[in-house]
Amino acid sequence: MPESSSPRLVPDWSDAPEGAFRPDADFTDDQLAEALEEANLPILLGSLALLTGDDRWIEDPFLPTAPPDLGDHDTGGFEAELAYRIRREAAAVLRSWRDGDLEVAAPPAPERLSRILSVMLAEKLPDDYGQLLGEEMGLYPRHSEPANTPPQDFRVAIVGAGISGLAMAIRLQQAGIDYVLIDKNDDVGGTWHENVYPGCGVDTPSYLYALSFDQNPDWSSYFAPQNELAAYWRELAERHGVLSRTRFATVVDHAEFDSTASRWTLDLRSTVTGDVETLSATAVVSAVGLLNQPSIPDLPGLSDFHGPVLHTAQWDPAVDLRGKRVAVVGTGASAMQFVPAAAEEAAQVRVFQRTPQWAMPHPLKGRAVGETAHWLNKHVPFYLAWYRARLFWRMGDKVWRLLQVDRDYPHLGRAINKGNDRLRAMLTAYIESELAGRPDLLEKSLPDYPPYGKRLLIDAGWFRTIRRDNVDLVTTGIDTVTASGVRTEDGVDFDADVLVLATGFKSVDVLGSITVRGRNGQTLREAWGADDGRAHLGITVPGFPNFFCLYGPNTNTGHGGTVIAGTEMQIQYVTALLSAMVDEGLETVEVRPEAFDAYNRELDDALEDTVWHFGGTTTYYRNARGRIVTNSPWRYVDYWRRVHEPDLSEYVTTRAEVTAHEPSSDGAEQLTH
User: Fold this and answer.
1) Coil, strand or helix at 32
2) What value, to the nearest 5°, has the Cα angle with vertex 470 and ends 468 and 473?
3) Beta bridge partners of 540
4) What does the alpha-carbon distance between residue 462 and residue 594 come to, in Å, rounded to a whole number?
5) What is the pTM of this model?
6) Residues 6 or more apart whose Cβ sits within 8 Å of residue 602
7) DSSP string, 474-514
8) Percent helix, strand, coil in the chain (nearest 5)?
9) For 528-572, how does the pLDDT look when each residue is reduced to its tens digit (9 = 90+)?
10) Which letter, b or e, does each residue of 349-374 get, where b requires 16 or more Cβ atoms within 10 Å of its Cβ?
11) Rounded CA gap, 11 and 97, in Å?
């Protein structure tokens, strides 16, 4: 459909986030009628309910049926006559809105958002879910900024210009807080800048993989490829003016807190010249995340291989796989994408599998987003917001119970609860159908652990690929890498021209690439021990004032959804603390050990009831001692409640000018006035 010019951006709720849901009201009657023929009817009804404030759009006869699968359920289950009526009446409302004859309804109460989405999906959502939904939809603000102007020397150093660091920088810029963004790469994007292996893309729906306060209506496909994701984050950085405050090709080797000056000193090193310099900052935000250090397996003979050895996170685009024999070690999320892509070009692909993975189909995987959907996202108020909200619930907290262990369940082992067992049966039937007639592959491909014991993958054509004549699935363990290929434990040699390590990341080595030294001279590694990171809310650590983690220990939402949602919640928490420092004249904020310990006791107790603690398989979520370091046991809404507003009583604070000193339990000074 042709784009219109001179958009009128409405509605305009005064307390809504900047840039939120302001659709283009410049369109013709014909454009509208054409688009509504392909509109998702449940989403359209939800949009009309918000636009008009009229509940008739979410009452009989406008009640959709439940989606039968993970698809969009565009028809809503409506008969043709009622579907025609919905489109006709929707067109009348939207024309009235376009022409300025419709008074836009007041902002909805959170309870109404929950009710509308419950009707759209034909399932009851928790009553207290509305506020979180509103933030995810961009309807309610999720942002803090100081009432006062920050001191001239108040500066935040953000380490890492991936998703978390870039979003943090944008929020600080909006809050008027000075910052510098530092990254080892030559561009923003983090993992989406570094991971360029064939087939690389997001395995979370594209419309969830965007900032709630700056959504993208124009994704090319429902699961976007790497290059489009990298372009999205680059465009955000350019549009929000972040690049002028970013230090690229720069590594932070060491960060140390100066208790006398109440500031952090960072040692920076140029990856181009090797030059070293220091930077002073009021606060440091680690945005390096959990997936930034490739895990290289300790395979005997690895250095002896005569051809290219490539980790998927360190891919060399110059390597040509056409006509090559490719050996792939690993069968996780990266392999799920790489192997189908490589099999299209390589002469032969051999996959060396240690553990099979549960993978599920998604009806929209591999599908392009049509131009009509783009038009609806841009022109129909709340349409894009509701599309995102549906995904947020269905791919997130809706499935949380599937990961909780029912100790009374009679079939513990194959599954952890009744719903988990039903999922296992569904996934098993899917794999059996994909590998019909290949009992040899089926035996190798059916996991013996409960679903979600490892990350549940979206099938990118894996099972069809391993059926190909030029693909072999090898399940015998690797004995050694040779100069010409891989030798398995049964003595069989497999020749290869290229060796690919799809072996993931050192996810439990939190902040392993930086030495961070706190108030008492202790480093984070010393405070934590090897591979055992802990933080209050996954964000702050006693002994490390004004130091904050994004996507830190135990913040990965293993039940699904999107990492961006949790990261935005953490950014809100950190920005609120920084704003409090400005407004209250605080030099430092440091979490109390009592708060840290209480949270981590709750965390450990909750983790004991999860599928990851139950075991049955190896997973990158656990360290060598079996503790889950990466994942959060909470639902999104549970974590959101904890981090939505910081509780300063959980913190030891100091001011520049003090009148009294009160020692805290760990020897830090709490300053009273």
Assistant:
1) helix
2) 75
3) 536
4) 48
5) 0.92
6) none
7) E-SPEEEEETTEEEETTS-EEE-SEEEE---B-TTSTTTTS
8) 35, 20, 45
9) 988 889 999 999 999 999 999 999 999 999 888 889 999 999 999
10) bbbbbebbbbbbbbebbeeebeebbb
11) 9
